[in-house]
Amino acid sequence: MSWRARLSLSLNELRVVYCAKSASSKGTRDFIKNNYKTFKVLNPGLPIYMRPSDGAQPHVAARYERGVYEVRDVTGLSEAQVLGVVQELEAAAPHINSTVGGGIGGNKFKLADIV
C-alpha cells in the first residue's frame, strides 16, 4: 500500500496553512493544487484542511492519536519538498502513536496546548 493511501491509517488530521499570495508559499500552493484531490480520493474519511491566510508562514500539521500534533515549517519549499514533509509525518506515525506523550523531538503539542 502506498504511503499516500496509508494517511488515514496513520493520521487523525492533516492541516496545511499557507499564504495565497506570498512567494514563500508557492511550493505549498502547488502541492495543494497537484495533490489534494489524490489524497482525498485515497483517504475519504481523513480530515484534510487547507487554510489560506494572508501573511501566514506556511506549515503542515499532522494530528496523531491522543491529540498529539506535529508541525513542520515549509516556508520556501518546493512542491516536491512539501510532499516529502507529508511523507515524513506519515512515516513518523507508528512511533508517535505508540509513545505516550507524543514521542521525542520536533514540535509536538497536545491538543490542549493549541486550542
From TrEMBL:
Pfam families: L51_S25_CI-B8. SMART domains: L51_S25_CI-B8. It comes from Chondrus crispus (Carrageen Irish moss). InterPro entries: NADH_Ub_cplx-1_asu_su-2, Ribosomal_mL43/mS25/NADH_DH, Thioredoxin-like_sf. One of its GO terms (cellular component) is mitochondrial inner membrane. Accessory subunit of the mitochondrial membrane respiratory chain NADH dehydrogenase (Complex I), that is believed not to be involved in catalysis. Complex I functions in the transfer of electrons from NADH to the respiratory chain. The immediate electron acceptor for the enzyme is believed to be ubiquinone. This is NADH:ubiquinone oxidoreductase B8 subunit. It is a peripheral membrane protein. It is found in: Mitochondrion inner membrane. Belongs to the complex I NDUFA2 subunit family. Residues 20-92 form the Ribosomal protein/NADH dehydrogenase domain. Keywords: Electron transport, Membrane, Mitochondrion, Mitochondrion inner membrane, Respiratory chain, Transport, Ubiquinone.
